[in-house]
C-alpha cells in the first residue's frame, strides 16, 4: 500500500478526533484534500478504513490495525531524524509544543526565552489548544510536549509540574463587587462580561456558566488579557483572567482584583509527554527545562 507519512499523519488525526473536518485542520489540509487522500488510501488497499456516520468517523478493524502501525512508523521516523541530525552540522531541529491559553499567554514566553537562547539550532512549533485536545494529541504523537490543566484525563502521559493558574475577576475600582475579597461565579451571572476572543480559557469559563444553566452576558470579546483588564478598568464590564495577568495590569488599567471561590478557578498546569518516553534529545531537554529538572 503506497501510504506516505502525510497519509499516516492525516489518518491518525482523523481517528483521534473522530472527524475528517477537524483531523484535516490538525494537519493543515482542506477538507476536500483530506477526503480525497483518505479515499485514495482505501482504494489503494482495497479496504475500508473508516466507518462514516452523522456523529463522525471511527476506524474499522482494518483501520485499527493501520492506527497501530502508523503510530510506530511516525515515532520511529522522528527518532531516526533526531539521531541522524546529531551527526550533521548546522541541522535545525523543531520541537512541537501545544499549550492552553493561560500557559501560552502568561508563562510560555518567559519560560522559553532562556532555553531557546541557549539552543539556537532548535525551533519551537507552538500552538494553542484546549487541555483535552492537548492530552489527546500528545498521546497520539502529534506533539512532543503539552502544557495543560492536570484536571484532564492523562492516561498514557507522564506529567511534570509547571505552574499554578488561578482565575480572578477584574472590575473597575469603584465597582460594588470590590467590597468582597472573594466571589462566587454564580453571583456574577447578572454582570456584563468582557471576554476573550477565542481560546481554550474562554471555552472553559463559558462551560462553567452552562453547568449553572446560564449564558454569560457578553459585551465584547478581545484578543488579550491586557485588553480585558483595560476595558474592565474603564467600567465596560467585568472580566475573568489569570491572576498573574491581573496583577501585572492592575495599576496601569485601574482595576480591582477579586478571587473566585470555585475549585475550578484554581488550575494546576502540568507539562506532559508520552509515557513511553520516546522523546527526541531536543524535546527531552526542553521537557526538563520546563519542569525544572536540571538533569534532563
What does the model show?
By secondary structure, the protein is an alpha/beta fold. The protein contains ten helices and twelve strands. It has helices at residues 5-17, 20-27, 31-45, 61-85, 101-118, 131-140, 200-211, 225-233, 243-253, 281-291; strands at 50-53, 56-59, 93-99, 122-128, 145-149, 157-172, 182-183, 192-196, 217-222, 238-242, 255-260, 266-274. The strands form two sheets. Strands 3, 4, 5, 6, 7, 8, 9, 10, 11 and 12 form a ten-stranded mixed beta sheet that branches. The protein has a two-stranded antiparallel sheet with strand order 1-2. Strand 3 (93-99), helix 5 (101-118) and strand 4 (122-128) form a beta-alpha-beta unit. The longest helix is centred in the first third of the chain and has 25 residues, at 61-85. The model has no long low-confidence stretch (mean pLDDT 89).
Layout: helices, strands, pairs:
Layout: H1 5-17, H2 20-27, H3 31-45, E1 50-53, E2 56-59, H4 61-85, E3 93-99, H5 101-118, E4 122-128, H6 131-140, E5 145-149, E6 157-172, E7 182-183, E8 192-196, H7 200-211, E9 217-222, H8 225-233, E10 238-242, H9 243-253, E11 255-260, E12 266-274, H10 281-291
Parallel strand pairs: 3-4, 3-5, 7-11, 8-9, 8-10
Antiparallel strand pairs: 1-2, 5-12, 6-10, 6-11, 6-12
Amino acid at each position: 500500500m503506497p501510504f506516505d507519512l502525510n497519509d499516516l499523519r492525516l489518518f491518525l488525526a482523523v481517528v483521534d478526533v473522530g472527524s475528517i473536518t477537524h483531523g484535516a485542520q490538525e494537519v493543515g489540509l482542506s477538507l476536500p484534500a483530506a477526503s480525497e487522500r483518505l479515499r485514495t488510501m482505501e482504494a489503494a488497499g482495497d479496504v475500508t478504513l473508516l466507518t462514516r456516520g452523522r456523529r463522525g468517523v471511527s476506524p474499522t478493524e482494518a483501520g485499527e490495525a493501520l492506527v497501530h502501525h502508523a503510530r510506530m512508523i511516525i515515532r520511529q521516523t522522528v527518532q531516526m531524524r533526531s539521531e541522524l541530525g546529531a551527526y550533521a552540522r548546522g541541522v535545525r531541529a523543531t520541537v512541537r509544543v501545544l499549550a492552553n491559553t493561560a500557559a501560552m499567554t502568561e508563562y510560555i514566553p518567559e519560560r522559553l526565552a532562556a532555553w531557546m537562547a541557549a539552543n539556537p539550532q532548535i525551533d519551537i512549533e507552538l500552538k494553542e489548544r484546549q487541555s483535552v485536545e492537548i492530552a489527546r494529541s500528545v498521546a497520539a504523537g502529534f506533539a512532543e510536549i503539552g502544557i495543560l490543566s492536570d484536571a484532564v484525563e492523562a492516561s498514557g502521559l507522564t506529567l511534570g509540574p509547571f505552574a499554578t493558574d488561578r482565575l480572578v475577576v477584574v472590575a473597575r475600582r469603584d465597582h460594588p463587587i470590590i467590597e468582597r475579597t472573594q466571589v462566587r461565579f454564580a453571583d456574577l451571572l447578572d454582570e456584563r462580561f468582557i471576554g476573550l476572543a477565542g481560546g481554550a480559557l474562554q471555552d472553559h469559563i463559558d462551560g462553567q456558566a452552562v453547568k449553572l444553566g446560564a449564558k454569560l452576558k457578553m459585551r465584547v470579546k478581545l484578543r488579550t488579557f491586557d485588553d480585558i483588564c483595560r476595558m474592565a478598568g474603564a467600567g465596560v464590564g467585568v472580566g475573568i483572567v489569570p491572576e498573574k495577568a491581573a496583577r501585572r495590569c492592575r495599576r496601569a488599567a485601574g482595576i480591582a482584583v477579586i478571587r473566585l471561590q470555585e475549585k475550578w478557578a484554581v488550575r494546576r498546569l502540568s507539562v506532559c509527554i508520552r509515557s513511553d518516553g520516546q522523546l527526541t534529545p531536543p524535546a527531552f531537554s526542553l521537557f526538563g527545562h520546563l519542569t525544572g529538572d536540571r538533569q534532563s
